[in-house]
Amino acid sequence: MAKFVSITISALVLIQSFGFHANDLVVLDELITHAKFHAEAYGDNFFVFLSKHYGELKSEHSQKHQEEQKDHEKLPFQQHSQFNNLPSVITADFENYDAREQQPIAGEDDNFFYINSYHSLTLGAPFQPPRLA
User: Fold this and answer.
1) pLDDT tens digits, residue range 27-85?
2) What is the pTM of this model?
3) Burial, 52: exposed, middle or buried (Cβ in 10 Å; 0-12, 13-18, 19+)?
4) What span is annotated as the signal peptide, if there is one (predicted)?
5) Number of Cβ within a 10 Å radius of residue 28
6) Is 81 within 8 Å of 44 (Cβ atoms)?
7) Cα torsion through 87, 82, 22, 57, rounded to 10
8) Cα 50 from chain centroid?
9) Under the phi-then-psi rule, with left for phi > 0, alpha for psi from -120 to 50, and beta for the rest, what region is 125?
10) Which distant-in-sequence residues (6+ apart) come within 8 Å of 79 by Cβ?
Protein backbone atom coordinates (compact mmCIF):
# COMPACT_ATOMS: atom_id res chain seq x y z
CA MET A 1 0.00 0.00 0.00
CA ALA A 2 2.86 2.37 0.81
CA LYS A 3 4.40 1.76 -2.62
CA PHE A 4 1.07 2.52 -4.32
CA VAL A 5 0.72 5.81 -2.43
CA SER A 6 4.30 6.85 -3.18
CA ILE A 7 3.92 6.01 -6.88
CA THR A 8 0.64 7.93 -7.05
CA ILE A 9 2.12 11.01 -5.39
CA SER A 10 5.20 10.84 -7.64
CA ALA A 11 2.99 10.63 -10.73
CA LEU A 12 0.95 13.59 -9.49
CA VAL A 13 4.10 15.69 -8.99
CA LEU A 14 5.35 14.69 -12.45
CA ILE A 15 2.07 15.64 -14.12
CA GLN A 16 1.95 18.97 -12.28
CA SER A 17 5.50 19.77 -13.34
CA PHE A 18 4.37 19.59 -16.97
CA GLY A 19 1.80 22.30 -16.27
CA PHE A 20 -1.36 20.19 -16.46
CA HIS A 21 -4.19 21.33 -14.25
CA ALA A 22 -7.58 19.84 -13.45
CA ASN A 23 -9.41 22.54 -15.41
CA ASP A 24 -7.45 21.50 -18.51
CA LEU A 25 -9.17 18.13 -18.41
CA VAL A 26 -12.56 19.82 -18.09
CA VAL A 27 -12.08 21.95 -21.22
CA LEU A 28 -10.54 19.16 -23.30
CA ASP A 29 -13.76 18.99 -25.31
CA GLU A 30 -13.13 22.61 -26.43
CA LEU A 31 -9.82 21.42 -27.91
CA ILE A 32 -11.54 18.64 -29.86
CA THR A 33 -14.32 20.98 -31.05
CA HIS A 34 -11.84 23.62 -32.22
CA ALA A 35 -9.71 20.97 -33.94
CA LYS A 36 -12.79 19.79 -35.86
CA PHE A 37 -13.51 23.41 -36.81
CA HIS A 38 -9.97 23.77 -38.20
CA ALA A 39 -10.27 20.51 -40.10
CA GLU A 40 -13.49 21.68 -41.77
CA ALA A 41 -12.61 25.35 -42.32
CA TYR A 42 -8.89 25.18 -43.15
CA GLY A 43 -8.26 21.50 -43.90
CA ASP A 44 -5.72 21.20 -41.08
CA ASN A 45 -4.86 17.83 -39.60
CA PHE A 46 -4.42 17.51 -35.84
CA PHE A 47 -0.65 18.11 -35.87
CA VAL A 48 -0.98 21.32 -37.89
CA PHE A 49 -3.74 22.39 -35.50
CA LEU A 50 -1.43 21.80 -32.52
CA SER A 51 1.35 23.73 -34.23
CA LYS A 52 -0.99 26.66 -34.90
CA HIS A 53 -2.18 26.85 -31.29
CA TYR A 54 0.76 25.61 -29.22
CA GLY A 55 3.79 25.51 -31.51
CA GLU A 56 5.80 27.57 -33.94
CA LEU A 57 2.82 28.78 -35.99
CA LYS A 58 1.00 30.20 -32.97
CA SER A 59 1.97 33.87 -33.41
CA GLU A 60 1.21 33.84 -37.14
CA HIS A 61 -2.15 32.16 -36.61
CA SER A 62 -3.18 34.54 -33.81
CA GLN A 63 -2.31 37.57 -35.97
CA LYS A 64 -4.25 36.35 -39.01
CA HIS A 65 -7.33 35.13 -37.15
CA GLN A 66 -8.22 37.73 -34.51
CA GLU A 67 -11.90 36.75 -34.76
CA GLU A 68 -11.10 33.37 -33.15
CA GLN A 69 -9.40 34.93 -30.13
CA LYS A 70 -12.27 34.11 -27.74
CA ASP A 71 -12.20 30.48 -28.87
CA HIS A 72 -8.42 30.36 -28.40
CA GLU A 73 -8.73 31.59 -24.80
CA LYS A 74 -11.05 28.67 -24.01
CA LEU A 75 -8.51 26.07 -25.14
CA PRO A 76 -6.72 24.02 -22.46
CA PHE A 77 -3.05 24.43 -21.51
CA GLN A 78 -3.16 28.21 -21.98
CA GLN A 79 -2.33 29.24 -18.41
CA HIS A 80 0.96 30.95 -17.82
CA SER A 81 2.84 29.93 -14.70
CA GLN A 82 5.89 31.52 -13.24
CA PHE A 83 8.26 29.45 -11.18
CA ASN A 84 10.33 31.30 -8.64
CA ASN A 85 12.51 28.39 -7.67
CA LEU A 86 15.43 29.59 -9.76
CA PRO A 87 18.31 30.87 -7.68
CA SER A 88 18.44 34.58 -7.27
CA VAL A 89 21.14 36.33 -9.20
CA ILE A 90 23.09 38.94 -7.34
CA THR A 91 24.85 41.42 -9.52
CA ALA A 92 27.57 43.47 -7.93
CA ASP A 93 30.62 45.35 -9.05
CA PHE A 94 33.22 42.84 -7.84
CA GLU A 95 36.07 44.37 -9.82
CA ASN A 96 36.01 47.58 -7.77
CA TYR A 97 35.19 45.93 -4.44
CA ASP A 98 37.74 46.48 -1.70
CA ALA A 99 37.19 44.81 1.67
CA ARG A 100 39.57 47.25 3.38
CA GLU A 101 37.09 50.07 2.76
CA GLN A 102 34.44 48.34 4.86
CA GLN A 103 34.34 49.75 8.40
CA PRO A 104 33.01 47.77 11.36
CA ILE A 105 29.79 49.03 12.88
CA ALA A 106 30.58 51.14 15.92
CA GLY A 107 28.65 50.81 19.17
CA GLU A 108 27.63 47.22 18.68
CA ASP A 109 27.77 45.38 22.02
CA ASP A 110 28.44 41.71 22.28
CA ASN A 111 25.61 39.82 23.85
CA PHE A 112 27.48 36.71 24.95
CA PHE A 113 27.50 35.61 28.57
CA TYR A 114 27.67 32.37 30.50
CA ILE A 115 25.11 31.16 33.01
CA ASN A 116 25.84 28.10 35.04
CA SER A 117 22.76 25.96 34.55
CA TYR A 118 24.06 23.09 36.64
CA HIS A 119 22.01 22.42 39.75
CA SER A 120 22.55 19.71 42.28
CA LEU A 121 20.12 18.50 44.89
CA THR A 122 23.00 17.74 47.25
CA LEU A 123 23.69 21.39 48.06
CA GLY A 124 21.57 21.12 51.16
CA ALA A 125 19.86 18.46 53.13
CA PRO A 126 16.85 17.09 51.25
CA PHE A 127 14.44 17.31 54.22
CA GLN A 128 14.49 20.72 55.90
CA PRO A 129 11.66 22.56 57.56
CA PRO A 130 10.39 25.75 55.94
CA ARG A 131 12.41 28.81 56.97
CA LEU A 132 9.58 31.33 56.84
CA ALA A 133 6.22 30.53 58.31
Assistant:
1) 888 889 989 988 998 898 988 888 888 888 888 888 888 888 888 888 887 766 555 55
2) 0.50
3) buried
4) 1-22
5) 13
6) no
7) -120
8) 27
9) beta
10) 19, 21
